[in-house]
Design goal:
Oligomer: single chain
Order of helices and strands: HEEHHEEEEHEHEHHHEE
Structural class: alpha+beta
Mean pLDDT: 81
Number of domains: 1
Helix content: 40-55%
Strand content: 15-25%
C-alpha cells in the first residue's frame, strides 16, 4: 500500500527529474558565444572520476560506484582551484550549516605542477573552455575572494565540488546561470551528472576534451 510519505518522495523525485532534464537541455544546447574561432583565453575543467579497488568493486554494482565520489577542479593559467571538505577524517555535514564558524568546506588553490603530482594515477577527463578576458578575471576574483572567506558550507545535501564549480561558471557567464544555489545543487548532485552535461556541451561547441587514464588496479566509473 502506498503511503503519503511514498507519494511525497515520488513527487520530489519527479520534480527533480523534470528540473534536471529541462536544465540539461538548456545547458547542453547553449551555443558558446566565443566557440567559433574567436581569439580568447582558456580555462580547463578537470573531472576526476570516482573509483574503488577492483577487489571491492567485484562486490558492488557499477551504478553504486558511479554514486560514491568523483571531483572537479578548475584550472586557470598555472593554478587549479577547487572546493572540498575541510576535514578529510570527518564525515561531511548532511545538511548545510548557516553559521560560518561551523562551515565544513574550504576553497583551495594549488600550483598546477603540485596538482599534477597529487593527481597521479587518477582517471581525469579535462575540458578546455574558451573564455573572454573579463570572464577569466571575474572567475579569478571570485575564487580569490572565496579563498579568504568561504561563502557556504560543504554538505551532502548542499554545495559540494560540482555544484560549486557550476555556480562559479554560471556567475561569470561561462555557462548558463541558475536562479539559486539550490538549482545548482539539484542539477549537479553528483560530479558524474555535471561531467556528462559538460561533455555534451563541449561536444556541441567543439571544445577540446582529453582523458588521462587511471591506475589499472582500480575500477573507474565512466
Amino acid at each position: 500500500m502506498i503511503t503519503l510519505i511514498d507519494l511525497i518522495v515520488i513527487f520530489i523525485i519527479f520534480c527533480w527529474f523534470i528540473l534536471f532534464a529541462t536544465n540539461k537541455r538548456i545547458f547542453v544546447y547553449s551555443k558558446h558565444p566565443i566557440a567559433e574561432g574567436v581569439d580568447s583565453f582558456f580555462i580547463t575543467l578537470h573531472f576526476i572520476h570516482a573509483s574503488v579497488y577492483k577487489k571491492i568493486a567485484s562486490n558492488l554494482s557499477k551504478e553504486a560506484v558511479r554514486l560514491i565520489g568523483g571531483h572537479i577542479e578548475i584550472q586557470i593559467d598555472e593554478y587549479v582551484y577547487g572546493f572540498e571538505t575541510k576535514y578529510k577524517n570527518k564525515i561531511p555535514h548532511i545538511i548545510s550549516y548557516e553559521e560560518r564558524k561551523n562551515f565544513n568546506g574550504v576553497f583551495l588553490k594549488k600550483d598546477f605542477l603540485i596538482w599534477l603530482e597529487e593527481s597521479k594515477g587518477e582517471l581525469i577527463t579535462s575540458v578546455k573552455v574558451p573564455v573572454t578576458l573579463k570572464q577569466k578575471q571575474k572567475l579569478i576574483e571570485l575564487y580569490e575572494k572565496n579563498l579568504k572567506e568561504t561563502p557556504y558550507d560543504y554538505a551532502f545535501f548542499g554545495m559540494r565540488c560540482a555544484s560549486s564549480a557550476y555556480q562559479m561558471l554560471g556567475t561569470t557567464g561561462i555557462v548558463p546561470a541558475q536562479e539559486s544555489n539550490t538549482r545548482y545543487i539539484m542539477s549537479s548532485f553528483f560530479p558524474r551528472l555535471f561531467r556528462k552535461m559538460v561533455l555534451s556541451w563541449a561536444n556541441y561547441n567543439g571544445f577540446e576534451v582529453s582523458v588521462k587514464e587511471g591506475r589499472i588496479d582500480r575500477y573507474w566509473e565512466r
